[in-house]
Amino acid sequence: MSETSIGKIVKVAGPVVVAENMVGARMYDVVRVGKEHLIGEIVELHGTRASIQVYEDTVGVGPGEDVVNTGAPLSVELGPGLISSIYDGIQRPLDQLTELQGDYIQRGSEVPGLKRDTKWHFKPTIENGTKVSHGDIIGEVQESTLMLHKIMVPFGVSGTVEGLKEGDYTVEEIIGNVTGDNKSKTELKLMQKWPVRSPRSFKNRLAPHEVLVTGQRVIDTFFPISKGGTACVPGPFGTGKTVVQHQLAKWVDADVVVYVGCGERGNEMTDVLKEFPELLDPHSGEPLMKRVVMFANTSDMPVAAREASVYTGITIAEYFRDMGYSVAIMADSTSRWAEAMREISTRLEEMPAEEGYPAYLGARIASFYERAGRVICQGSPDREGALSIIGAVSPPGGDLSDSVVQATLHVVKVFWSLQGRLAQQRHFPAIDWLTSYSFYKQYLPGCFKDAQQGEEMATMSQEAMNLLEQEAALIEIVRLVGSESISAKDRLALQAAKSIREDYLHQNAFHKIDTFTSVEKQFEMLKAILYFYKQALTAIDNGMETDQLFAMEAWDDIARASYVDEENIAEIAAIRDKIDEQIKAASIA
Amino acid sequence: MLKEYKTVTEIYGPLMLVEGVEDAKYGHIVDIEIADGSIRHGQILQVENDKVLVQIFEGTEGINVNKSTVRFLGKPMELALSPDILGRVFNGIGIPNDNGPDIIAKKKMNINGSPINPYARDFPNEFIQTGISTIDGLNPLVRGQKLPIFSGAGLPHDDIAAQLARQATVLGKGEAFAVVFAAMGITFEAAQFFINDLTETGAIERAVMFINLANDPAIERIATPRMALTAAEYLAFEEDMHVLVVLNDMTNYCEALREISAARKEVPGRRGYPGYLYTDLATLYERAGRIKGKKGSITMVPVLTMPEDDKTHPVPDLTGYITEGQIIMSRPLHRKAVSPPVDVLPSLSRLKDKGIGEGKTREDHADMYNQLYAAYARGKEAQELATILGEAALSAEDQKYMSFANEFEAKYISQGYYENRTVEQTLDLGWQLLSVFEDNELKRIDEELIAKYMPKFRK
Ligand SMILES: Nc1ncnc2c1ncn2[C@@H]1O[C@H](COP(=O)(O)OP(=O)(O)OP(=O)(O)O)[C@@H](O)[C@H]1O
Ligand SMILES: [Mg+2]
C-alpha cells in the first residue's frame, strides 16, 4: 500500500491542478485537493510532481494548499441500491446531493454511491462449506420487481464459504466469510468496489448471435444491433440522437439499462426522471425505472467528472453483465466526453493531434467500445452475459469527417446516420436508410419464434431496401423528365418506396402506440406494403392503370397500420385480403 | 488586509502577468490601479507558484508594467443584488451607468453561478404567449426554455427580441414578470432602441440592463452575460419572478473568448475558437430553467448573428447543441419585406409539445402546426419550382399550394412588430388560411377537429 502523503499545490489552471511532493502517488489515485477537499484524480506523474484533474469547480484554489492522496483509484460501489438511482459522473447520488447542498451543485460533498441505511433481504444460493472463487454467485437480493440482484464473490477472493445466512443486511454488514487456503479470512458484504478505468474480467468472449430488439422499425428491420454489440448515432444538432437514445432506453429487451447523460442538457434528464417512472416495460408491465441506472453529468457540471462518467457508467453495466444479464448502455454524447478529454489534455499541455484532441483519443474510444460484448461470466454457475453500447456522437456542423466520428466508426459495428435534411422534413427517426449499416443483419431471423417467419422477414427487409435504392435512382430521372415519362412499374416502385418511408420507416416517438413496434407487428406492416407492391405489379401486367392502383383505399389502411394496437395485429394481416378484394374489384370494373 | 503588488512583469493582449504573489487563488478578482490613478478590473486565469496570469476586462491599453498596482481582492467576481436592480442600467461588469445610486446589497452572488442539480430541476411546461404567430403557433416557447434567435448581419433580430420582451406573458396569470437584457458589443443605436422601446411601454420598470456597447472593452463581454444571469437567478429564485433573459449578441461574446484564448496561445479549435467553447456556452445557457419548489423561472432568448448566414459556424452550431431549439431569421423573407422574417421550416422549439393542447392553449394546436408546416413546406417547393420553370408550368395542385404559401407568408408570418396576437387568434388564422383546402386534404388534422373548427372559416 502506498503511504498517504501530503503534497502541495503549485499550479491551478481551470480543472487541472499540479501538486509537488506527492510521494508514493500512483497514476489514477484519487486525491483530495485544497482546503475544501475537492475530489480529484492523478492523470500525470513526473517523479513526485502530479497533475490532477479535479471533479469539482476549482475557483478559490491556489498554490500552497494541501493535496492528500487517498491511495485508491477512482472506484464505484457495486451492490443493491444501484437500480433507479441517478448519479453524477463520479457516482454521487444527485437526490442526496440536493438534500445536502440544495438546488445547486456545491463543492466538497462526499456521498457514497450506495445508501448505507437500507436493509436488503439476502438469500444465499449456496451451502456453507462450499469452495468458491471470484465471480461465483453466493446469493440473491430482490432489488426491484424487475431486478434479482446476484451477489458475487469479489475479485481476488477464494476459499471456503462460512457463516452465510439468510437475513436483512445493509450493504456494509457482513453476510458471511471466505476462508482461504492460507487460513486468511475475507468478510463478504452485499457491496463490492471496482476501479472504473479497468474492465471487469470474464471467462470468455463470444461472438454476438442475437438481436437486441428495440421496437424501432428502421433499426430492427434494417440496421439491428446485437446483444453485446456496439452502435453509434452521429448527427448534427436537433436530428434526434437523444430521442433515439431515449427510445432505446425505454424499449430495448435488455434486463438492465444504464443511461449516461454526458455533457448534455439538464432539462433532458428531468424529462427522463419524470417520464420513466410512468412508462411500463412492454415485456413485464413494470415501471421502466425499475431496470434503469442513470448518470447525469450535464454540460454545465465539471468537465473532469464528465470525463469519468462514461467509465463509471460502463463499470456498473459490466457488473450487471457479470450476473448473467443482458445490459445496454447509452452514452449521450460521446463527443462531450471526448471534448472533456481534450480540455484536460490542453491543460496538461500535451501535444495535440487533430482538432486539438489528444493523440490517445482513438485508443480511448476503442477501449471504451471494447468493453461491450457477449461473454461467459466469471465464476459458477455457468452463465452468459451481454453488454451492448450505443453512443451518440455530435460532430461540429454535422461533419462526419470529425475525429470522434471517425475514431468511433473504426470500432463500432452499427452506424445509424442521422441526417439534417430528414429531420428538417420531420422524417423521424432521421436515420438515413442509404448510408447507415449494421454488421448484425444476419441475426434478424432469430428475433422470431417462428423460424420460417424470421427467414421471410429477412427476405422482405432486403426487398424493401432494394425498393428504396431503386427510388433513389429513379428520383433523379423524375426530376429531369417528370414522372409521366417513366414506366408504370417504375411509378409503382416509387409509390411502394414512398409507403415504406412514410408508413414504415417514419415512427413517431411521442405517439402512445407508434413509439414501440414488436417484431411481429413489424413483419405484418412490411408484408402489407410488399404484398400490395407485388399484387399491383401483376395487375399492371394485366393492363391496370397505376392511377387506379394508387387510389385504392388499402393504402390508407397501410398508413394507419402503425397506430394499430399490438393486440390487434390481425387487423394488419387482414389488409392483404382487402388488397386482393380491391384489385379484383378494379379489374372487373 | 488586501495584498498589493507592483510586480507586473508582462502585458500581452488582454492579459497581464504578476510575479512574486502570495496566496493568489484561481478565479479570484483583482483591481489594477494604473498610472493615471484609474482602476481596471481583472480575473485570475491561472496561478503557478508565485506567478499569476490575469485577464483585464477593460483591456490593457495604457497600462504600464512599472507603474501599476495590483490588488488581490480574495474573492470571485460578485454582483450586489436587491429588488432595487429593477429599472436600472449597468455597464458590462455590473457598475451602474445610469447616474443612479449604487445598489445596497441584500445579497451578493458569485457571477459564475453553480450548475443546477439535474435532480432539482422542474420540467418546463407552461406556455408563454409571445403574441408572435410563428412562435406561438408553430414553435411555442415554454417557461424555463432556452430558445435562441439565429440571425445574420442586417436582419431585424433586435426588433423581434424587443417584441418578445414587450409582449411575453403567461396566459391567465398575473404573476411577477421581469426582463433582463444583456447587450454585448451591440451598437449604441441598437441598445437605445431597446431602452426606448421598454421605456415607452413602461416595461423598463421591471427590466434590468447590462450594457456593453460595440466601442466598450471587448473582454468585458465575458462578464456581461454572467452578470445578467446572476441578476436573473436572484429575481427568479429569491424574488419569485418569471424572468426573460435576452442575451444579444452571443457571437460578440464568443469573439471575446477567442481573443483571450489566442492571447494564451491555446490550441485553437474550429475557426480559432477555443476547444472549451461548448462547455463555456453551456455554463451560460444551462442557467435557464425551473427549480422544483420555486415559484420563479428563467427563460432565455440568446440572439446571435451567424457569420455569412452559416448555420454550421461554431457559434450557432454549438449553441444549437445546447439550446432547446432555434428560431431562424431568413434573408430572402426579409427581402420580401416579411416581418418578422422567421424561417419557419428550419426553426424548431423542441419543447413545443410540453406547453400546448387542451387546458394549456387549445386542443387543435398540435395538429394545426403539423398541418401548417406540411402545407407550407409543400407550397415552398412549389414557389421554388415556379421561380425556375415559371408559374404556368405548375400543376393546378402545385399552384394551390404556392398561393397558400404566399398567403401564409403575408398574413401568418408577416404580422409586424407591434401586433400582439392571442394564441386563439393565431390558431384561428391557421384555420382561415387552411380553408382553401378540402377537408380530405388536411391529413394531419383529426377529422373531429376539422368538423368542429373549420365550418366557421369556410365561405
Ligand atoms: N422519433 C421521433 N419522433 C418525433 N419527433 C422526433 C423524433 N426524433 C426527434 N424528434 C424531434 O426532433 C427534436 C430533436 O431531437 P433530439 O433532441 O433527439 O436531437 P439531438 O440530435 O439529440 O440534438 P442535440 O445534438 O442538440 O442534442 C425533438 O425535440 C423532437 O421534436
Ligand atoms: Mg441530444
What does this structure look like?
The complex is a heterodimer of chains A (589) and B (459). With 589 residues, chain A is an alpha+beta fold. Chain A folds into four domains: 5-72, Elongation Factor Tu (Ef-tu), domain 3; 115-190, RNA polymerase II/Efflux pump adaptor protein, barrel-sandwich hybrid domain (OB fold (Dihydrolipoamide Acetyltransferase, E2P), Beta Barrel), CATH 2.40.50; 204-444, Rossmann fold; 451-588, Bovine Mitochondrial F1-atpase, Atp Synthase Beta Chain, Chain D, domain 3 (Bovine Mitochondrial F1-ATPase, ATP Synthase Beta Chain, Chain D, domain3, Orthogonal Bundle). Chain A is 33% helix and 24% strand. Chain A has 16 helices and 28 strands. In chain A, helix 11 packs antiparallel against helix 12 (519-541), helix 11 runs parallel beside helix 14 (554-560) and helix 12 (519-541) packs parallel to helix 16 (575-588). The N and C termini of chain A lie far apart (91 Å). Chain B has 459 residues and is an alpha/beta fold. Chain B folds into three domains: 3-76, Beta Barrel (Elongation Factor Tu (Ef-tu), domain 3); 79-353, Rossmann fold (3-Layer(aba) Sandwich); 365-453, no CATH class. Chain B is built from twelve helices and 22 strands. Chain B has helices at residues 133-138, 157-167, 188-200, 224-237, 250-263, 277-285, 314-320, 331-335, 365-389, 396-413, 423-434, 447-453; strands at 3-5, 8-12, 15-18, 29-33, 39-48, 51-56, 69-72, 78-81, 89-91, 107-110, 121-122, 127-129, 141-142, 149-151, 169-170, 177-186, 207-213, 242-248, 289-291, 297-305, 325-328, 348-349. In chain B, the strands form four sheets. In chain B, strands 9, 11, 14, 16, 17, 18, 19, 20, 21 and 22 form a ten-stranded mixed β-sheet that branches. In chain B, strands 1-7-4-5-6-3-2 form a seven-stranded antiparallel β-sheet, with no helix packed on it. In chain B, strands 13-12-15 form a three-stranded antiparallel β-sheet, with no helix packed on it. In chain B, strand 16, helix 3 (188-200) and strand 17 (207-213) form a beta-alpha-beta unit. In chain B, helix 9 crosses helix 11 and helix 10 (396-413) packs antiparallel against helix 11 (423-434). The longest helix of chain B has 25 residues, at 365-389. The radius of gyration of chain B is 25 Å and the shape is elongated. Chain B starts with a strand and ends in a 6-residue tail after the last helix. Classes of the chains: A alpha+beta (589), B alpha/beta (459). At the A-B interface, strand 1, helix 1, helix 4 and helix 6 of A face strand 5, strand 11, helix 6 and helix 7 of B. Magnesium ion (MG) binds next to helix 3 of chain A.
